[in-house]
Specification:
The chain has 328 residues and is mainly alpha-helical. It contains 16 helices and four strands. The radius of gyration is 20 Å and the shape is globular.
């Protein structure tokens, strides 16, 4: 690859959204089309790496970053030649966006592909910056019911708190922060931005796949997905069910309402109260609410945003931040 090659792949697609919203499913659908560069990982570059390491223009920081990057699953899954990559990467470190461009373009050239797509959910917070660097980029914002997302995050112990109610509220606030930010930034991009609702994709895949095909300019249908089970499409999961009737042999709606049986009535009411307005603004129906101590809600939102600020803006947060998936 020539040293100066960047932006050689046109119209990259970024799949973004809150964690646990179905971004991996949408990304797998893109990969199944055989149009995009195959890459089975999140790059984690614009938030995780940027927060963890700092500015790549500083020699010591770049050296630490590139040392970890070459040991990470992010790099190892690319299949790129290590020596060639190292030799050229040094010329693409003015920003993480430039490094991302170089990395994804290198894979595309290696695979002889004309397009690439990237799937790191929390890049939803970086839509404006990405769109400015990649003027032809497009964004697929995957949106799922915040109560289902909060249930999944809570199950994974995503929030560290001894109080169950505060953990659940914080998970809901995480969802709210990401979807609101994504929509606010994305709608400024006009036709470069598309929202995909997870529930709609599962219930009416033909309709959503048709809209998706128009958006990316590549035809994708259920038969193609059934024949090419890339990524999560090939995994055993109740969302993907070959026993479905009619022409939908992949997606089962059975899992869509699981949060309703997993969450107690009280927990559902708590989430309805804390993120109910945002749920309704995204078209979700909101049931019974509950009298929640407003101080607790204010406290949760304050602590969530404070932790995010500390993580992104301070040395203390940088040192505590989880980094790349290292293959030790």
């Amino acid at each position: 690859m020539a040293v100066g090659v960047v932006n050689s792949v046109q119209s990259p697609v970024f799949v973004v959204g809150s964690a646990r919203s179905g971004t991996s499913l949408v990304y797998s659908i893109l990969m199944a089309s055989n149009v995009y560069t195959l890459y089975a990982a999140e790059t984690l570059l614009l938030r995780t790496c940027a927060d963890k390491y700092g500015r790549l223009t500083q020699k010591s920081i770049y050296e630490k970053f590139i040392q970890d990057w070459l040991k990470s699953k992010q790099f190892l899954r690319s299949g790129l030649n290590r020596e060639v990559f190292i030799r050229n990467a040094i010329h693409h470190k003015s920003s993480y966006l430039e490094f991302l461009d170089y990395f994804m373009t290198a894979m595309s050239l290696d695979q002889n592909k004309s397009y690439w797509a990237e799937n790191t959910p929390n890049h939803v917070l970086e839509i404006s910056n990405i769109a400015k660097y990649f003027p032809q980029s497009r964004f697929l914002h995957v949106i799922r019911d915040g109560r289902a997302v909060a249930t999944s995050l809570n199950k994974l112990n995503w929030v560290s708190s001894k109080q169950a109610a505060l953990r659940l509220m914080s998970a809901g606030i995480h969802w709210e922060t990401h979807v609101v930010s994504g929509r606010k930034q994305g709608r400024k991009l006009g036709k470069r931005y598309m929202e995909i609702y997870y529930e709609e994709l599962i219930r009416h895949p033909n309709k959503v796949l048709c809209a998706l095909s128009d958006f990316i300019g590549t035809n994708i249908d259920l038969q193609m997905l059934q024949n090419n089970r890339y990524g999560v499409l090939g995994k055993t999961n109740t969302v993907y069910n070959e026993k479905q009737p009619n022409d939908n042999k992949l997606f089962s709606a059975d899992a869509l309402s699981r949060w309703k049986t997993t969450l107690s009535a009280k927990d559902q009411a708590i989430l309805n109260t804390v993120i109910g307005d945002t749920l309704q603004s995204f078209g979700y129906s909101v049931g019974k609410k509950i009298s929640v101590n407003q101080f607790s809600v204010i406290y949760c939102k304050f602590m969530y945003h404070l932790k995010e600020w500390l993580r992104h803006e301070t040395i203390l947060g940088r040192n505590a931040k989880t980094g790349l998936e290292l293959d030790e």
